[in-house]
Amino acid sequence: MATHIRAGEITARRISLTTATYEIKLTAYFDMENGKNAADAQNDAWFTIGNVGSTGTPDIIRAPRVQPILNIGNNTTQNTYIINYTFRSTGQYRISFEEDNRNNGILNIGPPPTQGLNFYVSTILEINANFGLNRTPVLLNAPIDLAAVGQRYIHNPNAFDADGDSLAYRLFIPQKYGVNGAGINLQYVDPNQIGAPGRTEAGASPATFSMNPLTGDLIWDAPVVKGYYNVAFVVEEWRDGIPIGEIVRDMQIIVEDARNDRPLITPLPDICVVAGTLINQQVKATDKNGDRLTLTTSGGVYSNTLVSPEVAKFTVPQQGAAGSVTGQFTWQTSCNHIRLEPYDVLFKVEDAPGAGVPNPSLFRKLADMTTLSIRVYGPKPLGLRAVAATDPAGPAYRLSWNAYSCQIAGARIVVYRKEGCTDIIVDDCLTGIPPGSGYQRIGTVPVNQTTYLDNNNGSGLRAGISYSYRIVVEFPRPGVTANEPGSLIGGGESLASDEFCLNLPSVMPVITNVTVDSTSDSKGVITVKWIKPVATAGLPAQYRLFRAVGQNGTAFTQIASINTNLAAGAPDTLFIDRNLNTLLNAYNYKLEYWYTEGGKLVKMDETETASSVRLEQGAAQPNQVRLNWSAIVPWSNSNRIHRVYREDKTKPGTFNRIAEVSVQGTQTFTYTDDGTDKYAADGTVNTTIVSDSTYCYKVETVGSYNNSQIRPAVLYNFSQILCVSSSDTTKPCPPVLAIDPLNCDSLNAHPDAFCDQVSFTNHLSWTYPQEVNGQECDPNVAAYRLYYARYEGDVPALLTTITTPPVPLSTSYDHQGLTSFAGCYYVTAVNRFGAESAPSNTVCKDNCPMFVLPNVFTPNGDSKNDIFQPYECPSFVQSVEFKVYNRWGAQVFKTQDVNVNWNGKTNAGKELAAGQYYYEAVIHFESSKKDSPPTTIKGWVQLLR
After folding, report:
1. Source organism's superkingdom (predicted)?
2. Lowest-pLDDT range, 348-352, 478-482, 923-927?
3. Please, what's the b/e burial string for 83-97 (b: 16 or more CB within 10 A of its CB; e: otherwise)?
4. Is 454 helix (H, G, I), strand (E, B) or coil?
5. Of the residues 476, 503, 530, the one at which a domain ends
6. Which of 194, 245, 695, 700 has its CA 20 to 30 A from that of 573?
């Protein structure tokens, strides 16, 4: 019962894959100055172990003290207590330790006297087989240091996680023992509040106390009143973005009046190295008073049980030198050291009285520390190359590379692919594939494999595309085996390999041009061009060309069948599409390729769609005309110079190039004409843009597939001719849109309303106003454009364009073939010049979710009501998480089956007794809101047998 406990924490490590058996360790720090007898008598410790949040009785387990007892200085010993304990089930558990009594006279906790307060620490563990042989972090730096009044104090626990999990730190309130192993906060203030406001070591006010959540540096700048202080903090353990445990360290800081200045360590920069690098890092400490210095270090890199096989070394040739001391840190890294999280190495310097100190007995040792952060990553894979491969799926490539230099069990090689060949940012510390680089993960193989067949997962690659490949190695967590759960997650990555870029043999035609030759409301002309495939198997062959209205149009109609023998030297094929309304419509094209097999034509594949260029007027501006154009095509029109033409009013029908526009990174481009001709090569034709005068334009896009197999390399395509005014007095106004609503209240009485229905229709209608806010609307509406977005907040895309015929222009549309009603719409009006109004009001429609559960079922095997499931059919359900609990609150069944299909048994197949059970269903319904919250249904069900 004597006061003797200063600090401590509980750590744990799993020691069996077949059972949830853990070694649990208490590391306690005892006061040998004021409580030696009590410390010597503390031969065992008692752990309280129970489920977090449970009201059940926890286990109380005795743990013996392990010898030897370590004297760590500052009148403190380190005592260790260890037991092995097997948890009965998965879940979250609290392990706690408490003992009477704390030191007396602690200044920042209460209520006083503090010798009447017990010492309490806890650790939370997530017991989960998927975590493998998980270990909590260990805290390698003892929690007892002396601090000096008026001088900055720093402590770092030097936490090391052998599994490579991420660690985070936060301050915590010291506690005493509560009920069933839980803790109760003591009366507490941060140490800097004692003697507040105080000053920092540099003289600023007030004094500060904080903890860095990333590094774990606990800094008190600076103490004001000498005495004992207790503080606590939590070390959180995270894996793949999920917290899996936490440790509470309760520690004591002893503040003295010091008659010397603390020593200083020169801060060290973070280090990032490829595995196999020999690290040589000098560490230097100084003391302006000329005191003798002791430079020490700690960290997982020195332990062959935590880092194997090569461990780090630290030598200090002139240990104890006065005024200055230098150490040399060396570590031969290897493949075994690769991991995602850095290794933290703590360096600490303490002073001692020098020969010139007049009264050494009054000397109080002070310390400083710094952390060296070392990240070890995997070397770059070498020798990536690829050759064409024969595969039934279609175009394919066989990739190969040199045997990887770090053959770590459980590591795997990840293959990435993108279309096109471009460099990525490469940096010695930038591992993996950078986000936004355009690469997609397409497959993995074991680290000892050196080949991979890319046939697009059995679908074949696309013809006429330049493909780029890179490979990256992913590593298991340090210390785990290849067959251990979670072994392939979170162990870090290598640098990305060099790019290998290639072209597939063209076995399909590729569309190269969709250019508008003539603009008319009924006699428009578009020329479509494509190149012939290189492969000649299955001749004779046939092209089938399809057209849809609108750049995003999907209602394709076949407009041509063209037989060809693909003779050597035959020109690229083309089709002139006539009698189109190019004035108001853009058009979308695709091409099917059919080959001969067994004397019959068989469809091989179809091209990506390619639209015509659509030119439109932007927002009206005085004395200027703003132009916008777009094209949805498989080639790239970005990073090119597009051409803008304006009709020469003195020569009707003659267009003069007035500008070259550099465009980047988008499918929609823009230019504002102020009347100045900015392109002089074909003659300068300036004009004055005036109101109520019409100007006619067309644009020419310039693009490329960036593929040496496709010729011509540069693709030119014209838009339609657009004639507009700089400031029309009557613009098309936004229509007023409505959508047919659903009456969910009436449908709730009919839960089978949508059973077996797989296709849904939204009926939309709108009206066109004569004026808006007193301004007349252009009555000559030539078309309506309806836009659709699946979710609220998304940018709607053009769904359809409604033009003449019929006459009069239709003001309604049925959006058919939907998988649910959810979605949002707006409509615009387009006048005879192609000018588009602002969007109408946006209307959204949602589903009527249906998920109704019964309250009784009889799983007795008579084939009547044997299965617990929703009434009729659940409607518009994306996902369900369904759980069943018995009357004591224990979970007995769970499923993610949308139809539940519970047969009255546990997930392990054990029949449950008849009785009342309680369920909770968390349901995500199809909705017009992308991140709509789930619906939670709770209820009870009677199980009868």
Report:
1. Bacteria
2. 478-482
3. bebebeeebbbbbbb
4. strand
5. 503
6. 700
User: Exposed, middle or buried by CB within 10 Å (0-12, 13-18, 19+), for 499?
Assistant: middle
38: phi then psi, degrees, rounded to nearest 5:
-65, -40
Question: In the listed set 611, 641, 658, which residue is the last one of a domain according to the structure?
Answer: 611
**DSSP classification of residue 732:** P
Q: Kindly indicate the confidence band of residue 852, based on its pLDDT and cuts at 50, 70 and 90.
A: confident
CB atoms within 10 A of CB 560: 14
Who's near 254: CB < 8 A, 6+ residues apart?
74, 144, 145, 146, 147, 228, 229
Q: How many CB atoms lie within 10 A of CB 691?
A: 12
Is the residue at 697 inside a domain?
yes
Clarify whether residues 453 and 343 are in a common domain.
no
| DSSP characters over 142-209 | -SEEEEETTS-EEE---EE-TT--EEEEEEE--EEE-STT-EEEPEE--GGGTT-S---TTS-SS-EE
Of 50, 51, 486, 441, nearest in space to 242 by CA: 486
Domain that holds residue 714: 614-725
Total domains in the chain come to: 7
What number of other Cβ atoms are within 10 A of residue 504's Cβ? 22
Return the ∠ at Cα 561 (arms to 555 and 563), rounded to 5°. Answer: 150
DSSP state of 902: B
Would you say 195 and 186 are in contact if contact means Cβ atoms under 8 Å apart?
no
Under the banding of pLDDT at 50, 70 and 90, the label for residue 462 is: confident
Instruction: Please classify residue 440 by burial: count the beta carbons closer than 10 Å to its beta carbon, then call 0-12 exposed, 13-18 middle and 19+ buried.
Output: exposed
Tokens 């558990």 correspond to 93
* Cβ atoms of residues 248 and 230 within 8 Å: no
Residue 832, class by beta-carbon neighbours within 10 Å (0-12 exposed, 13-18 middle, 19+ buried)? middle
Q: Which amino acid is at 903?
A: N
Sheet holding 313-315, edge to edge: 264-265, 278-286, 324-332, 313-315
Residue 605 is predicted with a pLDDT of: 83
Contact 173, 230 (CB under 8 A): no
On average, the pLDDT of the chain sits at: 88
Confidence class of residue 729 from pLDDT cuts 50, 70 and 90?
very low
CATH number for position 759: 2.60.40.10
3-state secondary structure of 300: helix
Q: Are residues 826 and 861 in the same domain?
A: no
Q: Give the burial class of 10: count Cβ atoms within 10 A of its Cβ; 0-12 exposed, 13-18 middle, 19 or more buried.
A: buried
pLDDT tens digits for range 531-559: 888 655 567 789 999 999 999 888 999 99
Query: Do residue 30 and residue 149 come from a single domain?
Result: yes
Of the ranges 471-480, 515-524, 805-814, the best mean pLDDT one: 515-524
Q: For the beta carbon of residue 830, count every other beta carbon within 10 angstroms.
A: 23
Q: What phi-psi label fits residue 325: left (phi over 0), alpha (psi between -120 and 50 degrees) or beta? A: beta
Q: Do 101 and 211 fall into the same domain?
A: yes
Instruction: Indicate whether 450 and 558 sit together in one domain.
Output: no
Q: Are 432 and 413 in contact (CB under 8 A)?
A: no
- Residue pointed to by tokens 């251990």: 484
Q: Can you tell me the mean pLDDT for 74-83?
A: 94
d(CA 99, CA 415): 56
Contact 65, 30 (CB under 8 A): no
- Long-range contacts formed by 360-363: CB under 8 A, 24+ apart: 362/259, 363/259, 363/260
Q: How far apart are CA 939 and CA 943, in angstroms?
A: 13
> Tokens 């074949």 map to which residue?
460
Give pLDDT tens digits for 638-684: 888 999 999 998 999 999 999 999 887 666 799 999 999 999 999 99
Q: Which residues contact 55 (CB under 8 A, 6 or more apart)?
A: 180
Which residues, other chains included, contact 571 with Cβ-Cβ below 8 Å and sequence gap of 6+? none
